[in-house]
Amino acid sequence: MKQGSLLKALACAAFLATLAATPAIAKDTKDAPKQEALYPNATRAEPKLDPIDKKEADSLNQGLQAAQDNDDAKAQQLLQPIADGSKSKYAQALATQALANIKYNGGDKKGGIELLKKSLDSNALPNDTYFQLQFNLAQYYAGDEQYPQAQQTLQQWRDQGKKDTAEAHGLEGMIDYRMEKYPEAIAAINKAKTMTDKPNPQWDQILLASYSETGQTDQVSKLASDQLAKNPGDATALRNASAVLLQQQKYPEAIKLLEQARSNGTLNDETDWQNLAKSYMLLAQDGTDAKGNGAKAIAVVEDGMSKGKMQKSAENYKLQGDAAILGENEAGSVQYYQKAEPLSKDGEVGLAMARVQLQQNQYSAAKKSVTAAIAKGVKHKGSAYMVLAESERGLKNKPAAVAAMKQAAQDPETASKANAWLKQAAAK
Fold first, then answer.
1. CA-CA distance, 209 to 173, in Å (whole number)?
2. With the C-alpha atoms ordered 97, 103, 105, 111, is the resulting torsion angle positive or negative?
3. Nearest to 378 by CA among 397, 352, 359
């Protein structure tokens, strides 16, 4: 089990979730009451806004409101004609940025980027709107995994808008992280957290993963512990803390944490239940009370299923089968593999079961299991055919065993062993 990748997966999910938020749609503010400028020190010369006739202004504002309300069909109907043919560059730019938002959130990220750039390049928007949309463009690029462009756009926003915010440093940290610039990501996120009393909880996900990538295990442990202490019932904080302990191979500590959550009823996510079972399995694998910890892993899955926290799935039944093997109960593992196999999409479970049956000298059962597994599809065909060959040999069917081993010899992974077996068999 690759626990080192868990923090990275959590951070990536957090990053994408942060960018999934719909940026605000700029409204027609030409006739709105004068408010304090959001970018008073901007270097960009603010353009004079083109006039919009009353009928078109009504359609524009209705369209912008429809876009804000996620009524895409109505927004498209009202805004597309304005974006395509208005005499006012200002009206065109406002309509185009709203259509960009619709495209982006509808899954056409590149189309959304193209339209948002078109709105900005028109140079028809007031500074407050222009820089708001420029920041949104940086988010768009990041959401489309165009990280250098996102970074460049964010820097332009800073240089031209002469503004700095916690949100900007948070975005910068996320971009740095995805570009594998981990020290820079740490610096940006820590800066963001100093600039607000309400930090985005997703920032700590990036910080945790960045500390982990740079080998700062003490910082990882401290941050994860602080998160959990502040939010003892929070599933994300629990998963972060347990992931850190597992990554550091502190299995008893991870078990203690997860068992405490199980006992007080806050262990609700299936992934956390699986991690608890896997923690016991890792202890068994290390040779610490293999039988006892293997049995505990099985019991965790049974408890999770009975409480509806874990699905009766191929993955979870296989988890029990694997735990039984680690717990030195190979015969018992078959019952779990038998439950998993019909639910499995491939033949991997059947192959695992065939290996156990072969070790138990159950040659007929092993042959049946591995034959079905090959038909269902396995990742390593050579290994499967070697199991089939040994099953046939146990059944004293030498021609069938040779035929299966010849199949194994065609796989580069098993060719050497298979050919050696065939050479030995031919000499007898």
1. 12
2. negative
3. 352
> In 10 A of CB 242, how many CB atoms?
28
Question: Could you say which DSSP state residue 142 is in?
Answer: H
| CA 294 – CA 330 distance, rounded (Å) | 11
Instruction: Quote the pTM value.
Output: 0.65
Contact 284, 275 (CB under 8 A): no
Report d(CA 24, CA 39) in Å as an integer.
Answer: 17
Length of the chain measured in residues: 428
46-71: buried (b, 16+ CB within 10 Å) or exposed (e) per residue?
ebebeebeeebbebbeebbbbbeeee
Q: Which two tokens stand for residue 70?
A: 């996620």
Residue-by-residue DSSP string for 170-225:
HHHHHHHHHTT-HHHHHHHHHHHHHT-SS--TTHHHHHHHHHHHTT-HHHHHHHHH
CA distance 153 to 100: 17
| CA atoms of 225 and 208, how far apart (whole Å) | 11
Contact 360, 330 (CB under 8 A): yes
From first to last of its 428 residues, what are the pLDDT tens digits of the chain? 343 455 555 455 444 444 444 445 665 555 555 678 899 999 999 999 888 989 999 999 999 999 999 999 999 999 999 999 999 999 999 999 999 999 999 999 999 999 999 999 999 999 999 999 999 999 999 999 999 999 999 999 999 999 999 999 999 999 999 999 999 999 999 999 999 999 988 898 899 889 888 988 788 878 877 878 887 777 877 887 887 788 778 899 889 889 988 988 888 899 999 999 999 999 999 989 999 999 999 999 999 999 999 999 999 999 999 999 999 999 899 999 999 999 999 999 999 999 999 999 999 999 999 999 999 999 999 999 999 999 999 999 999 999 999 999 999 999 999 999 999 988 87
| Helical ranges in 69-124 per DSSP H | 72-85, 89-105, 109-121
Distance CA 237, CA 257 (A): 11
Is the alpha carbon torsion for 379, 382, 386, 388 positive or negative? Answer: positive
Instruction: Output the six-digit token pair for 373.
Output: 């597994």
